[in-house]
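Mods, move this if it's the wrong board.
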Amino acid sequence: FSVELTNGSANGIAVGLFGMSTTNWGAFNLPLELSPAGMPNCFLYTDVRWSVGLVIAGGTATWDATVPSTSDWIGRSFVQQIFVLDPDVPGLGAVMSNANEGVIDFTPPDVRLDTDMPGAASSWGPKIAASDDKVFVTWRDSRNGLGDIYFNRSLDGGVTWLLSDFRVDTDMRGTGSSWNPQIAAAGSSVYVTWEDGRNGLRDIYFNRSPDGGLLWLYPDVRLDTDMPGLGSSSNPQIAASGSTVFVTWEDRRNGKSDIYFNRSIDGGVTWLSSDIRLDTDMPGVAGSLVPQIAASGDTVFVTWEDRRVENLFTSTTNVYFNRSLDGGATWLNSDIRLDKQPPGFVSARAPRIGTSGDSVFVTWEDFRNGAGDIYLNRSLDRGATWMTSDIRLDTDPPGASSSGSPEIAVSDNSIYVTWREFRHGQSDNYLNRSLDGGATWLPADIRLNTDMPGVADSGFPKIAASGNSVYVTWSDHRNGLNDIYFNQSLDGGVTWLPPDIRLDTDTPGADSSGSTQMAISAAFVYVTWQDRRNHVFHFETSDIYFNRVKKW
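Not the wrong board. Structure tokens:
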């Protein structure tokens, strides 16, 4: 890029200054007033990372700069100023230009992770986990006929991957449909669970690698402990804390679905001989659905939507919760309802859960005001007690527009919630956040996609947070068919990139990319998605792609 200095001295010397912070330079707060240094009415607006000498001719100078072509620079804000030596200026004989600000928004090539022929079969529903520089991705793949579960991994932060992906389910290839994989990682151990139809109706299966994805169990392990294939088990979710692995799912063995759980305390080698039912109403009487799980040490939390209380006119759901403080051995005798509307009045659904220390936070989509709103409840004592009044997070008029698909990320005392909302026409992605453990929230939520509001469909966001940094990715229809976009805040959600960033690097809008998922490590944000760019004619095939963004 180029920066031009104008209105300089007729001929002289200048110094170009390049920085990446607008808040501080070492011990100095920015902007820094330079009057005490003999430069009245001048300010330094950035930390000085690099400088370059410039020659002024005829009052102008041009600064040409090149940014390294690496993903480490994606999303970085930068500031440039020019320091001009001018003997005609009183005082020090120098002036400082105004500041030029920008964002580095180029994207390095994305990477295809499924290693069969591009577009030859459908690979979809990717899930991702990260541990230090190790990145693990799993997905459902139809290359062998009925779906199998495949896996790829990188040990160098997403730079290189296995040349041949690996099949995780160990029955005959393509014979018993396996789908909906979920993944967790702890150190070098990676754990995958999925629903599997090899025995008739679906069961929950599991496999694990203790060495970063090189060696896996044979055979894989069934986690639901009723008769194989007897009652359909689905929608598994997984969490890991050290060598302890927790899995929950919905299960129809008793009639309507209940929420069940199993756990391993030895890295997935052995499991409870009898799984545990977590919803505490009568078994199989009312549907308990789509559980979500979070864990910290020996404490494990599970939330779900539940139909045990319905009105006379329509099927409604409420949000329920249970917890264990001893690694999943024992649970509350009575589960807890978290939404504070009248039971069975209207639906509260799609809960998501996050935890930090003794605090646990649950957000969901709620229809008490008409169209969906986003609500949250929290506990500061490991799920024992909850707020008597839940909190609405979307800040337009209650029930005025449909808000849904919430996702949550928790980092220490900061809680970030993002969701999809139709307040301007087509859906946009919004965020609210609390920096004090959920006590207070922004009075005005923030729109994250930076195209025109409501013009193109942006939706199904995913979120991750670390320290004061928060990252959101989503699928976006602004260019035609869906692309994958990304935004970030490095100051606790106060400011965001002025232009969001597209992560899929084929032609914009040329083919549909979706089902985005995200994980973070100390150095990078990792994003994976399913992508139809290689499909042939009318065949609805897709591949699994990946990109990464440097954390700052």
